[in-house]
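Team,

Forwarding the record for the chain on the shared tracking sheet. I've put the sequence and predicted structure together so nobody has to dig through attachments.
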Amino acid sequence: MDAYWSELIRAVEQVDQAAIAAAAALIFQSWEHGGRVVVFGNGGSMATASHLAADLSKWTEHEDGRTYRAIRAVALDSLPILTAYANDESFGVVFGRQVRNVLDVGDVALAISCSGRSANIIAGLIAARQLRAKTILMTGDILRIAALTLADVVIPVEARDIRIQETMHLAIGQHLAGLLRSRIEEGMT
């Protein structure tokens, strides 16, 4: 078997189910109180953030005549906004400034970063903490992460290969959305 697949299988087997459940609990608690989830990341992690925000919103939407509201989730992926902050100030502020504009107390900021060291990711988490929002960090190898102390919940991917980390972040996001949908539906029965 190719090394990629072997490492991916190992990462799946080592995924921190308790951390995923804790993240789902934070998001569910925010949803119960009318809060929102803001998801952000750089590069491939931004694509995953967009995908996760869409899944959280769509997969938790009511079906079959049920009357529950979807999770309000948004990705900080607007290129005009990102480039305006990057051009006028610096790339390091692009998420912190946006977080300040959209988060409230009780909301959730979910950062996705393989390195966990990007200045803009750290600034986004700091801004969320200052606003008393809950914070979740999906990241890579936790031995190298600078942002660990800024997250209420850390979901690590124990793999050194960034391709494995990015694949796992997408899979974890899919699982997280499914857990939340199930939990919301359970409350409707």
